[in-house]
Structure formats: C-alpha cells, structure tokens
Amino acid sequence: MPDKRMNSIKNEEQYEALRDQGMSKQKAARIANTPNSGKKGGEASKYEDRTKEELYEQAKKVGIDGRSKMTKSELIKALRTN
C-alpha cells in the first residue's frame, strides 16, 4: 500500500511494479514520473546508436557522477544500471 510520500508519483502502478522487480525507490520513481510513463512502444534509440555526447547529456539528466571521465561504453553501462 502506498504511503503518503508517494503523492508525487505520477504512475503509482508502474512504480510498484518496478519496485517489485527490485529497482531502487529513486530509479522506480524517476521512471514512473516520466511524461509517458506506462506507455509502450518505446521510440528511444538504442544507447549504442547514440553519440557519446547524447549519452553524456542523458547521464547528466539522471545525475550520474563521474560522467565527464567516462567512455561511451562506460556511459552506456552507467545508464543501464542507474
């Protein structure tokens, strides 16, 4: 059952499902609060198809520390595990 702190979660059902899959509260909340949360048909390009600069900007957006010193493959790994 959601607690009072979850009032800021836009898609509580998705949040709970992500938590059940073992995601951290922070990551589950970030995903559940995206504008298109819960919608399928992802139109984002694969990380491997993006430039290092695009990956850097995404890492910056989600708050990954040390991103300026990461290689493209390290950025991809950090984005997938954050």
UniProtKB/TrEMBL annotation:
Superkingdom of origin organism: Bacteria
Protein name per UniProt: Rho termination factor, N-terminal domain
Positions of the UniProt region annotated as Disordered: 1-52
GO BP, sorted A to Z: DNA-templated transcription termination
Basic and acidic residues composition-biased segments: 1-19, 40-52
Taxonomic path: Bacteria, Pseudomonadati, Bacteroidota, Flavobacteriia, Flavobacteriales
Signal peptide limits: none
Protein species of origin: Pustulibacterium marinum
Pfam families: DUF7218, Rho_N
Domain Rho termination factor-like N-terminal: 53-79
